[in-house]
Amino acid sequence: MFALVGGRITGVVLGNAYGGGVGRQLGHLVVYLALWMLAWVGFAVTFPLVFVADKRWTLLPLAVLGFGICIPLGLGLRALWGQPGLAIAVGLSPSSSGGLMATIGWRTLAIAADGLARLALAVGAATAFAFGAPSLALSPVAAALLGLAVYALIVVALRPLGLSAAWAYVRGLN
Fold this sequence. Notes:
The chain is mainly alpha-helical. The chain has eight helices and no strands.
């Protein structure tokens, strides 16, 4: 929604100074930061498990490696693409959660990567369908409103599938 009508929405919510081109850039920045949101979920779930698995010794080497990779990556992508490049670099920075998952177990990393990839693909496809198709035929505001309604219907329709899988997993633990 932000990518389609970011300028109009932010102009209404934050004031005229954020309308137009600035609002459009802010909307695109929200889209660029989607990678960070996805990576952060992996990190937030994995970090406590490092302590549960008693693998604390891996935190310092992973932190040093993370700084060693992320700072040059951020500087390089910023020089290459400006603000979008910096947002993408920020999105890649918590990807050190992959190292945390590998520390817990390679199978953990494989399961999490598969699950996150499938989730990202499903959400991306639903978003492209809900917002992309209307944006081809309607004005940006109408496309965003219709897209929001379609996306909400998709989420409501697919939500029971995830809940059913979660319940089946919990029952399997007993």
